[in-house]
Design brief:
The protein is 65% helix and 4% strand. It has 198 residues and is mainly alpha-helical. A two-stranded antiparallel sheet has the order 1-2. The model is unreliable at 188-198 (pLDDT under 50).
Amino acid sequence: MPRNEANYRAWREANKEKLAAKSRRQRAENPTATRAAVNSYRMRNIEKAKEQKRIYMASVRAADPIGWRSKLRAWFRDNRDKVRAYEAKQRAVRLGAEGSYSAEDVKLILEAQQGLCFYCEVPLSARHEDHFIPLSKGGTNYRWNIVLSCPACNLKKGNKAPIEFENWKMNSPVFWDELKNERLSNDSTATIRTVHVV
């Protein structure tokens, strides 16, 4: 080993804390560049990164199996929007659809819809993230194809295209009665909009 390399290693060993602090500061000052560098490294070394993650997660689970599960459940409970966005992205990937959206996008959509169901305009107490043009009909997973609906409307819409769903609603005298009954059973203050066909 050359003398300079030995000196450098000795210096690094003696200044571990100083180097670690500098690294933390650089990562904090440049989070985007840091994230890009980490992602680039992972892509170049994908198998190594997967193996490191497997080893790390195995050690976490082994250290506290019960606590780990409860923390995971708590995280899922506290981050439902992130979980929904992740699950929608995975489903879109399976179906070969383009795009993705985030929990922040869902918050913006909720604001734009003023907290109302996209289809029946009833205040959302529970909500589903619906693909306006269904993935099965060639829709994308970009945020502009996402609308928020009440569970009743989303389940009734299923994978119908928007025009099919509107036609079905207009020609189905049962739809609004069923929706009204579901809403009134869930929320005594709910109101149902009147639909006028022109």
